[in-house]
Write a structure and sequence with these properties.
By secondary structure, the chain is mostly helical. The protein contains six helices and no strands.
Amino acid sequence: MATEERLHRSTTDRVIFGVCGGIAEYLDVDPTLVRVAFVVLAAASGIGVVLYLTLAVFMPRSGRPELSQSRQIEENLREMWDRTQDLARRARAALHGTGGDAARSRQSSTMGWILVCLGVIIFLANAGAFWWIDWRYLVPLVLVAAGGVLLLRRR
């Protein structure tokens, strides 16, 4: 089974707060599967984001001594704040091209434009501007096409 008996946030296999890595360790599964499940839940209903953040607040970090529930929540919130600040600093550095080369700056710019366009499209779709599009088929097709383009460009 897993390396620890209790459910903990992972300190070694983490992308943001270690929730998915901890769940994967506990269930003895590939962490990528857990991450994909959270992304699907987030995209389908938004519950994945709420669930992830809730678990990040309440799950203890691996290798930490047992604390009272209120102390654990306080520690987790402090750690989440610090981690969020660190991620924001790194994102700013990537967007402004500091500490990296021109290619990384160009990639950050491209990613920024993609996110802005995606946000505008989602906003307009929620406002009813694309009533004639069946999003159940369009979104997966766009994702498959984008993935295919990225794979072909790698060759």
